[in-house]
Design goal:
This protein is α+β, with helices and mostly antiparallel strands and 346 residues long. The protein is 55% helix and 13% strand. The protein is built from 8 helices and 7 strands, in the order E-E-E-H-H-E-E-E-E-H-H-H-H-H-H. A 7-stranded mixed β-sheet has the order 2-1-3-7-6-5-4, covered by helices on one side. The longest helix has 67 residues. It starts with a strand and ends with a helix. The relative contact order is 0.09.
Length: 346
């Protein structure tokens, strides 16, 4: 059910239903949930005295819409994708960052938030507003970015967006720990790495995560530019916007760095594997070089000819053994000389 709240002069007043007109002072906050399917729309259009554009209504009904900002006739629409409440890693140990849209419809003295039912950020925003308005006793856990009740719909919207963005920052510890463990496993020569599907999925998810943060930043930049053109960008709003965009820059940098580190670890893994394979091939080549003359000698004496040198000699067998030992020693000596020259060049 939609909740109608009046914020005025550091006071919060819960309304039983939609008022007949917008307040002359303060602003109205309409908090609606996605499962209500725009039941609040007729009351909001009556308050604005204008209809919401059909394209914007399509955006409000699109759960896959990226973060975006756009202007309408007497209102603005801000869409921000936020983290869902589901775990970062699924049952197959694969990174799965799931997001969902939060819609903000902003007008003069009116803010409509249209969001998921189980959003903790919006609930904490309402709890803080109730505490600051004197309706409830303060709790130990407060809405982090609120210092006082917002004085405009834009300020309240940006404060909520800031906390939605901070939820992305909260994931950095889990992401870093999991990727660091995969990197150690990749570079461990005594352990065979088997989580390739999870690692490839994580690389794809990090790219998508970075794209989500970039879309959020672009939407907020458009929002800031629009408010600057309208000369409604207050110092408090500008500070909150810059702080939120700085957090988004940190998220983009984090995802880019984690992706680069993972890619570097994969390349190092393949380089180490190739180096190990080269060492094995080198050893096999040296053994082949040693035993090739011996195989040649035994093949010569194994030919089916009646008259062969040393074949009828009593000491012929020992001469052949001595020849094989000599050839093996010469092969080993040649290999040692070549390896020694290679080490000297290095």
């Amino acid at each position: 059910m939609s909740r109608w709240t009046l914020l005025h002069a550091q006071q919060l007043t819960e309304l039983a239903g939609p008022p007949s007109q917008l307040p002359s002072e303060g602003f109205l906050w309409v908090d609606a949930q996605l499962d209500e399917e725009l039941v609040w729309l007729p009351q909001v259009e009556a308050l604005l005295g204008k209809a919401i554009d059909e394209l914007h209504l399509e955006d409000l009904g699109n759960p896959l819409h990226p973060s975006h900002f756009d202007n309408g006739d007497g209102y603005s629409v801000l869409i921000i994708r936020a983290l869902s409440g589901k775990p970062l890693f699924d049952e197959f140990n694969r990174l799965n960052i799931r997001t969902r849209p939060c819609y903000f419809l902003l007008a003069d003295r009116l803010l409509v938030t249209y969001r998921s039912k189980d959003s903790r950020t919006f609930e904490k925003a309402r709890q803080f507003a109730a505490q600051a308005g004197g309706q409830t006793k303060p709790e130990t856990e407060q809405f982090l970015n609120f210092k006082k009740l917002p004085e405009s719909p834009d300020e309240l919207a940006v404060q909520i967006v800031s906390n939605l963005v901070d939820r992305f920052l909260e994931t950095r510890t889990d992401l870093s720990d999991r990727l660091d463990r995969w990197q150690r496993d990749l570079l461990n020569p005594r352990k065979r790495f088997e989580d390739w599907n999870a690692l490839l999925a994580a690389r794809n998810e990090l790219n998508r995560f970075e794209a989500v943060a970039q879309d959020q930043r672009d939407a907020l930049v458009d929002f800031e530019d629009d408010r600057h053109r309208e000369q409604s960008l207050t110092p408090a709003l500008q500070v909150n916007l810059r702080d939120t965009m700085e957090h988004l820059e940190r998220i983009i940098g984090l995802t880019h760095r984690l992706g680069s580190n993972t890619e570097a670890a994969v390349q190092l893994h393949f380089s180490a594997t190739a180096h190990k394979t080269n060492e094995i091939i080198t050893v096999l080549t040296m053994l082949t070089a040693i035993f090739m003359p011996l195989t040649l000698i035994t093949g010569l004496f194994g030919m089916n000819f009646e008259n062969m040198p040393l074949l009828q000699q009593p000491a012929g067998f020992w001469w052949s053994i001595a020849l094989m030992v000599l050839s093996a020693c010469v092969s080993v000596l040649i290999i040692l000389v070549i390896r020694g020259r290679q080490h000297i060049k290095k």
